[in-house]
Amino acid sequence: AQMRPELPPQQAMGLVERSLSREEAQGQQLWRPVVSLVDQIARSNVELVQPGQPMLVSWLDHCTNPQLFTAMASSLSAEEETDRRLLQSFLRDQQGRRARLVMDRMSGMRADRRFGWVMDEVATVVGHDVGAISGDLLRRPPGEVLPMLDVLRRVEDPSAKQRIVELLRHPASDVRAAALRSLPAPLPQQVMVRVLEMLNDRDTGVRRAVLELLRAQRPRGAFQALQVLVGGPRFEASSPEIKKTLTAALAVTGSDSAIPVLQQMLQNSTKVFGGDSSRAALEAAAVGLAAVDTLRARQVLNQGAKSLNLQLRRACRDALDGKLKGV
Fold it and tell me: Which of 139, 289, 316, 323 has its CA 20 to 30 A from that of 69?
């Protein structure tokens, strides 16, 4: 491609991508010259094929390899005003088609903070037509959905927020967790109910994301709803891991207000001698008190750590030592 700059971008891009596919088994050796070439293109004023369109834009248009697309985009810099204008003109052209193309191909960018500005620019363009990017996201794989989610959370539009809520039902746990972390504050009542239901999610990462959300937002009515849940039959039927997650959620939403509930759980559990059920409830109550993390809660745990009841003593000590966790 360097030797034949007169090649139309589509042909040049095809040559590069075919070379990459043949060299794939040799690892990343070929990426360095490609990125170097792309950087030269980005800094040059060479115009090809379409008047007024830089060569880099033409290449990006015809790039189908997501890794190469990321490598090419990485040659742009947020600090360079010319690069910002180049990206903006690229994204805004063709009624947002290019912005959606970037979302489909930038899965390799999402973990790299350098590309936050790219996401912002995409969100600015896509924000005017959220419905066009979405379709049935629940049927799409995580590699396609996660970049879209990164853009949706940056869009100040009610329809974008609704799309994020829909992704709470995605079959992939990493998408559900990412959707939880993307929910805006404050949580509407119906969304809060859905979030609390996800405390029973089979995936640890999803339950951790719920706890982070509850700790950060302390949504209205969450503590009262959890009080009812922790005291009900569904709690008794839950696994030991879910019990601990529920009491930790009670703690982060209620703080000191959760202590009487958790104390009562300790007392009720010590009245039942032996059995996995009583031990699970004891550990869950101790986890909740540790999650409250106030002087009053630690006093309750210290008192329990001196109990004559072996199970109570062990649960409180383990909670104080950090050996028991909500997730």
Answer: 139
